[in-house]
Each structure stands twice: as C-alpha cells, then as structure tokens.
Design brief:
The protein is α/β, with parallel strands linked by helices. Strand 1 and strand 2 form a beta hairpin. Belongs to the RecN family. This is DNA repair protein RecN. It comes from Aestuariibaculum lutulentum.
Length: 550
Amino acid sequence: MLTSLSIKNYALIDQLNVNFNDGFSIITGETGAGKSILLGGLSLILGKRADLSSLKDTSTKCVIEAVFNISNYNLKSLFEAEDFDYDEQTIIRREILPSGKSRAFVNDSPVNLSSLQLLGERLIDIHSQHQTMALTTDEFQFQVIDALANNEENLQQYTSELKVYKTLKKELKSLLEFQADAIKEHDYNSFLLNELVEANLVDGELEALEEEYESLNNVESIKDKLGEAYQLLTDEQVGAITTLTALKNTFQKLSSYSSKYEDLFNRVNSSLIELDDVYREVDLLQDNLEADPNRLEVVDAKLRLLHNLMQKHVVETVSELIEIKNQLEEKVSVTENLDESIQNKESEIEAQAKTLDTIAKTIHDKRSKVIPELKEQLESILVGLGMPNAQFSIEVNLENEYLSNGKDNLSFLFSANKGGNYNELKKAASGGELSRIMLAIKSVLAKYIQLPTIMFDEIDTGVSGEISNKMGDIMLEMSKSMQVFAITHLPQVAAKGHSHFKVYKEDKDEVTHSNLVKLNHDERIVEIAQMLGGVEMSSSAIAHAKELLN
C-alpha cells in the first residue's frame, strides 16, 4: 500500500507531503484544482517518461518520492530478478533535473525506467477512462478468468514448457536449413575427403620423402663422392688413416719422455678411432647404395601428389592436410547423420507438444469451470449499478495453436439490453458502461487475488443517485482487502471513504499553487455540503452531508 507521497517542484506544486492509510481514501476538489497533477506525479513514480515541462521552477530539480508497504505483495522474486534491494518499506524516488535528464531510484539504488515500470504496475493501478479500454483486450479478459480459476501455477508451467518447445522448434529449423545447405556441399566434400584418405597422409612424411628422393635421384654422384672419400681415408701412401696412424705412433714414442706428449697421443688416438668409424660407415654406405628406378618413381609420384594437395588446399604442411581431412570427415559424417538427428529432434518436439497439450487442457478445463461463476457475479453486480439487463456470453475453445497463455480462443461478448445481440465489449458497451463493468470486474478480482493499490479516477462520471451509492459501496467493500483511492465529484461516494483528501488551488504572490490536504470530520461535512449544494451551503445541505457521513 502507498503510505506516503512527497512532491517537490512539480507542475503547480511547490512542496507537498502527505501520509495515507489503508482502506478507502477519497480525493475531491474542483475541476482544475490539480487532481490530474497528483495523478501525473504518481505516474512518474510508476515509470512514466518525464520532460522539463514537469518542473515548476526550471532552475531546480523536481523530486517525487513515494513510500510503499509491500510486505503482503510477494515481490521478493521480482526484486531479485531486477536486482533491487528488497525492503518491506520500499521507497521509490524520481528526480527530473533542470538539464532535462531523469533519474529513478528504488531504495536509493538507481534503476532504469523499464524496471521501474515492472515494479510500478505491481504497486498501483491507476484506473481511468483510458485504462478502461484494457477491459476489451483478450489479455486482460484471460487474466480475469485465470485469477478465478487459480491458474497461476499452471500458466507458469505452461510458459516454461512453451519456451522449451520453441527452442526445440528453432533447433529443428536450423537442422533443416543446415541439411539443405549441406546436401549441396556433400558430394564435393566427399570428393575432397576421398582424395585425402587415398593419399594415406602421415605427419612428417614430406621431409622424409624429399630426403629419399634426393638420394635416389643422385645415386651415381653419391657413389663417386663416397669412393673419393674412401680413397682419401685408405690410400696406403697419403690416406688420412695411414697418416693419422703414423702420427699416433710418433706421439706414442714421445709420451715416454713427458706427460704433455701423452696428452697429444691420446687426442690423436681419439681422432683415429673416430676416423676409423667414419671409414666403416663410408664402406657400409658404398655397399648399400644401389640405383632403384622403381622406388624413385614411387617417391616422385607421392611427392607430386602431396604438393598438389597442399597447393589445392592452400597449406604448407602435411599436418595441415590431415587437419583438413579431419574437418571434412566431420562435415561428411554430420551430413550423413542429419536424417537421424532430424528424426530425433522431431520426436523430442512431439513429446514436448504432448506435455504442452496436457497443461493447456488443464488450463482450459479450469477456465471453463469458473466462467459460469464469473458471469453470474458480474451480472449480479451490474444489476445494482443500473444495468439490470446486462448479460455476458463467455466461452473458451481449444485450438491447435500454442499461444502465450495456453491454446484457448476466447469469446467474451456482452449485451446491455434485454433481447439484444451479443457483441464485443468495445462495440456493445458505452464508455460509462465500460467503467461500471471494470469496477465490477475489479471487485470480483479482489476476492481472489491480492490486487495492488487501486486509484479510480472519476469512475463514477455520468452516474448519480442510487447507482453512485452502489458504486461507493463496491469500492468500500474492495477496501477491506486492499487500499482503494477514488477521485470523485459525487458526495454519495465521497461520504463512504475512511479518509478524505481535498485538492485545491490558491494564489500566493500572484502565483497559482496546488496543494492536497487531509480533511477532519468537520471539514468533510463542509466539503460534502458544498459538493451537494455549491459554495453557498444551505442548512439542508449541511444536514444531508452529516446524514451521508453517518
């Protein structure tokens, strides 16, 4: 409930601070006194956009602050979802700066307008002629029926399962689109893959093949060089081994004279051992070296194949070719298994559809069950509101399409006259009738769900006498379970409030100001008497006012 409202530098208001109680509060005042200004200020608290025209003094900022007791509103989940700081005494503040910028705060934490609007619609319902048109929408009508049917949990489950269903449908669509594209590329990818598979790629083989090719392609030259090396090593006169052997023998003789010669002997001897090993390797290479034209042809063919494949795929190594082969294998495999994937996805969708159908049927059955009760209650209330022949024809029919709130097609028709044809509300009911129907619906809803604070803005326009009295009774009854405000020009309605506030204008220093003040009992008598008989109050008007208040 709204417990207090503070307005500073807004429209015709310099400074306003007012506290509110629960129950039924009345707001009265002459036309143009500033009731619309009060509603405008509240609208800013609820997330309406603001501009510089809202500022009374454009050199200072406008501040509007409202305090709400939200202990019974079950809003913790919303606060968590929007990352608000939760407090049972929640403070909402809007600031409009002289620069034109606007800021919003919930419990002193900055918030954006979209988040503020989500919270605001759970706190205050400002009912005006414009809002009455919401009554004619399927969305609102379903909300009414579902409130009576206690469908909240079913609708939450349906919404969750519908999200899964839509995700599965989206995944199936992607698979089908991928399949259409993949089929076009499948043959080409398969051809490329076969080329790479047949090449029998081995990581690192290119370097080995190039080395083997050089050996096979230069056998004669290698033989000549190895023969020359063999000769240089083994020639009896000038061969390296012969010479190094003689040198070894020389230093061996010298080593007996001094240890420093022994060191030279050891070094020469090591070199001779190494050189002898080289000689044996050269001898082995000579024995094993043979021309092999067939092998040369095989190696040459494999090298040309690898180079062609690398050029074709624009890579420089066999390992990159192997990576491309793996990627092609995956693409081809996925394409070849798409039919199975699509079939599995269709099975998932079918199973999910059955789950949705079950929940939707439960929602439908509960709606169908409460419709007669809703129809009876609305028609009974409207009789007392001067619409004795009002009749509703309400039906829900299961359709095939999955809608956001089930599978029902809603027919919510109305007839105001006996024997008249049923038609849509927006066509069958006048503005005044729509207001009374909305009041009837809100009074029914108040029995089933915790409604936010509601402010009726001249909902009683165009009615008088006993009907206005009945409207006041309905709002008074609603105030037993919720906070209700009524902006009214009717004394019969004003007298039923637990609290009474008056909006008025006054001129100070040739400047007009609006203000709101809470009336005590004597002031209420005067206000209601003036509503009955004008500024010049008669004794009968005062007596009538006292009678209404009693």
